[in-house]
């Protein structure tokens, strides 16, 4: 069952990524240019990582609870930030809307359920959230540096040109804090008996 579930999740993620790539390619008409544009967004990066990890699980690879926990928190961040801050700023239609729903809604829910049901529990350490926060903070730095060079920012809350460096830094700190707090909640929940213990992941 874990491998079947992982395969289904991976399939949907790859389809969503493919649709998003196709929509962007229709406007850009260059493969490298399309990849460059899409690599601006944390949503695309996180979904790409999720598609790879789920594919590996479906093929029989063993991935640590630490890695899967970090991926789950990253996907939860994708869903929450979209619902709270971004949903009303994008106006996708057609295929782009389908891809957006799959990456912002389906993927976070699917990854969370997979973690709850199939990932071995009782193995996460309390320092895990600090390590997990490296991903969003690294992305934030990358997106800011890239934005300073290209003058194009992926999200309004990191647009230094419009909101200033101070507000951008506060937003980065808030996201990191939310990520760490959510991670601590996950570790706490991971050690609760209601999730079970040491279940095999495939």
Any overview of this molecule?
- Helix content is 75%, strand content 0%.
- The protein is mainly alpha-helical and 202 residues long.
- It has 8 helices and no strands.
- The chain has helices at residues 2-28, 31-38, 42-58, 65-86, 94-118, 128-132, 134-150, 160-190.
Q: Estimate the mean pLDDT confidence.
A: 89
Helix content: over 70%
In total, the number of domains comes to 1
Residue stretches low in confidence (pLDDT < 50, at least 5 long) are none
Radius of gyration: 17 Å
Any key phrases for this structure?
202 residues, 8 helices, mainly alpha, globular
Give the arrangement of secondary structure elements.
Blueprint: H1 2-28, H2 31-38, H3 42-58, H4 65-86, H5 94-118, H6 128-132, H7 134-150, H8 160-190
Brief overview:
With 202 residues, the protein is mainly α. The chain has helices at 2-28, 31-38, 42-58, 65-86, 94-118, 128-132, 134-150, 160-190.
């Amino acid at each position: 069952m874990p491998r079947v579930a992982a395969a289904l999740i991976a399939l949907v993620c790859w389809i969503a990524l493919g649709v998003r790539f196709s929509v962007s390619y229709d406007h850009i008409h260059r493969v490298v240019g399309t990849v460059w544009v899409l690599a601006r967004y944390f949503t695309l990066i996180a979904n790409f990582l999720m598609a790879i990890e789920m594919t590996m699980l479906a093929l029989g690879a063993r991935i640590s609870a630490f890695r899967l926990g970090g991926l789950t928190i990253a996907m939860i961040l994708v869903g929450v930030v979209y619902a709270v801050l971004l949903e009303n700023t994008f106006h996708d239609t057609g295929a782009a809307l389908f891809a957006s729903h799959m990456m912002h809604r389906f993927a976070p829910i699917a990854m969370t359920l997979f973690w709850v049901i199939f990932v071995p529990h009782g193995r996460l350490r309390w320092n895990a959230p600090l390590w997990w926060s490296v991903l969003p903070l690294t992305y934030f730095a990358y997106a800011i540096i890239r934005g300073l060079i290209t003058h194009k920012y992926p999200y309004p809350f990191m647009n230094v040109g419009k909101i200033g460096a101070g507000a951008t830094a506060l937003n980065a700190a808030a996201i990191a804090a939310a990520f760490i707090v959510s991670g601590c909640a996950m570790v706490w929940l991971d050690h609760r008996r209601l999730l079970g213990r040491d279940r095999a992941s495939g």
